[in-house]
Structures are given as structure tokens and as C-alpha cells.
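Q: Got a minute? One more chain.
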Amino acid sequence: MKKLSPYLAVLCLLLLLINPALSFSGALGGLSLWGTVVVPTLLPFMICTGAVMGLGGAELLARPFTPILGRFPGLSPSGSFALICGVLCGYPMGPKIDGEFLDSRQISANEAKALLAFCSYPSPMFLAGYTMDCLKKAEIDCPLPALLAAVYLPALPLAFLARRRFLPSGRTFKTALAVQEAKPQRPFSFDAHMMNSFETMIRIGGYIMFFSMAASFLERSFLPAGLSALFSALMEMTTGIQAISKAFPSWAARPLAAAAASFGGISGIFQTKSVLKNPELSIRDYVQWKCLHSSLSAALMVLLQGMGAFS
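A: Always. Here it is, folded:
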């Protein structure tokens, strides 16, 4: 891959020079999506969850869910908090909090690795808003409960597999590491945390812009509409879901849209990689888990269709 990197960089520059109008529209679409959807939904959650963590309120917030999540998949209160935030806040908050708890030694390495398998999702607001809007505009009947089930229910087999892999013995993960292993914590600064959140959001916006441009070039390429839509979904989740809704009939668009949302696109992978600072958490493992998650979501949506859920 390193040998190909210079050629890819030169190719990207040539594409920008050859078709600046298409580059501009792709960048504008990505930045518009970032500014009107991602920032308003993700940034407040990012700031508030960081404040909760910094002020020691994570276990307090996760306490009502600990009796359930503590039994299966056996998470500690801190791990439960990371999972809840990953579901409610959307990409890449789950892996971000997972890595931060591992850095501060509030969860063990095994629990952090297991969490990486099933703590990363699109937010319910994204599914209920953007995804459902794309499907409705294409006149595709897809009840919201079915879409939510297809995206979130695969967490159960993923958690089971992750527990089998990273918790070979015992019933629960450790709730905390030994005191001598814990890292000294700096006093929480809301101002510093907010600036760090802004930096993370700008990094996320850059990836969304870049991959939206790539999706724009794919839409105008010589590829058939269906193949172009699949490549767009592989690059960037939002533009991909829109393209899938337009290019495929209902029976194919539903599982493909669910798969695209569960995978998150290469853009989502780069966003996750940018917030995973701890070397014990592998982005390669994350990609493998997301591929499995995507496959399970598509299979579950096909099963729901076969059961007549959309008739």
C-alpha cells in the first residue's frame, strides 16, 4: 500500500485539475452534510460525554444499564457507558470513548478490544432522519423499526463472538485495573476538552469532504449506476445510501442501505482511525468486525423481507 500511495496522491490531484467543477460540488456536498447534519448531532454529544467522563459521571449514567450489560456481554460500568454512547451518538463516538477509557486504565485491554467489535453504529437520529428520507424519496417502503432492527440487533451475535474471543474464562470483564497500573489523571478542563472536540470534528469533516468528492467522481464515471452506487457506499455512507436508494429496486435497496449504514464506509473507518490513539486497539480488527456487522445487517433485512414485513 505504501508503494501505491504516491500514485494515488498524484491521481487525486489530477482529478481535481481535470474536473474542478465536479470537485467543487463534491466538496460542497460533503461540507454541507458535515455542517448541517454531523456537527449539530455529534458535536454536542461529544462535548457532553467528554464532560461526563472527565467529571467522573460515566458510571453514574451507566448504572441503570449495568445489571443487563454486566451479565451479557459482561461489560464493566465504564464499558457500558462506551457502548451506550456508541449507539446514541453515532460514528465514531463508541471507539473514541473506548480508546479513552483504555488510555486512562478504566477498562482492561481485553474489554476494550471486545467493545471495538460492537460499540460503533450510526445514530438513531441519522437512521430516522437522513436514511429514512432517502428511502421515502425513492418511494421505498421501509418501516423505521425494521431498519433499526437490521442495524442494531447484530450487536448481539457480535458481542457473543467478541466475548468468546476476549473473555475465554470468567463471567465478566474487570471493572478496573490495579491502582499501580492506573495513569495519573489531569484535572478536567472544560475549555481544553471543548477545543479537543472541535479539532476532532474538523478532522471528521475533512474525511467526509474528501470521500464525498470521491463519491461524486464515481457517480459521473463510466460505471453502471448500480455498481457506482455500491462503490459510493463503500467510500462514504451518506452519499452511498442516497445513491443506493435511487439505483436499486426496493427489495435490493433495503438490505444494501442497512449494510451501508452498518459498515460506515471507508470514510467512517478513517474517522475511527483518527480517534483510536491506543496501539492496543487495531483498526484492522475494527474493519473486520464492521464487515461482519454489515453482512449481518443485510442478511437480517433480507430475512425481514422474506417474512413479509414490508408487504
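A: The chain has a mean pLDDT of 86.
Q: Perfect, thanks.
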